[in-house]
Each structure stands twice: as structure tokens, then as C-alpha cells.
Design goal:
It comes from Saccharopolyspora gregorii. InterPro entries: VanZ-like (IPR006976). This is VanZ-like domain-containing protein. By secondary structure, the protein is mainly alpha-helical. The protein has a domain of 74 residues. It has 4 helices and no strands. Helix 2 runs antiparallel to helix 3 and helix 3 runs antiparallel to helix 4.
């Protein structure tokens, strides 16, 4: 579901992208790639292939936005924010493993 959402968010033609305050797109990129990374780890995908795939997806999505007839432009800063979001998602998923779990008691 998150992957499908990312395809819609990243590849909707410019005419279908809602207007928003400046900088909103960076927040969307950050949250989107954090969600992709977090859900990938939740699905138990191996860390290094997941991270490499997300970095590749970040760069490729910006190249495709620039070359496909979508009326959009690729942005290196968007790709960097994507990578930062992926890193954030990986850190959040790792932090979840460090949180002590409640003790199970019988009785």
C-alpha cells in the first residue's frame, strides 16, 4: 500500500498535484521515504538491500520526473530529502527494537 502510494505521489502529472505552501513537498518526501523504510524493516527486508533500493528509488524517481511527460522536474534536493527520510525510517525501526518489551507474567 505504501509503495503504491509512493508511485501516485511521485508520478502524478503536475496538473494533478495540489498547491501547497513552500517546503511542503520536502516534508512529503521525508515522510514518504521514512514510511517506505520503516515498513520495509517491519516486513523483515534485509537492511542493506532495503537501504540501497531506497537510495536508488530516490534518484531514479527524480530522473523519471524530469524525463517523463508529466510536466514535473527532477530535483536533487528532493532526492537528498528522500535519502534522509529513508535513514530516519531505518533509525525509527531500529529504535523500536531497543525499547524494552513488557514482561509477560502468568497468573
Amino acid at each position: 500500500m505504501i509503495i503504491g502510494g509512493s508511485l501516485i505521489i511521485l508520478f502524478t502529472p503536475e496538473s494533478g498535484v495540489p498547491s501547497a505552501p513552500a517546503g511542503t513537498d520536502k516534508v512529503v518526501h521525508l515522510v514518504l521515504f521514512a514510511a517506505l523504510a520503516w515498513s520495509g524493516r517491519l516486513a523483515r527486508l534485509p537492511l542493506l538491500p532495503l537501504a540501497a533500493g531506497l537510495v536508488a528509488y530516490a534518484g531514479l524517481s527524480e530522473v523519471l520526473q524530469a524525463v517523463l511527460p508529466l510536466g514535473r522536474s527532477g530535483d536533487v534536493l528532493d532526492a537528498l530529502v528522500d535519502v534522509l527520510g529513508a535513514l530516519l525510517g531505518l533509525l525509527v525501526s531500529a529504535a523500536g527494537r531497543w525499547v524494552p518489551r513488557g514482561r509477560r507474567t502468568t497468573g
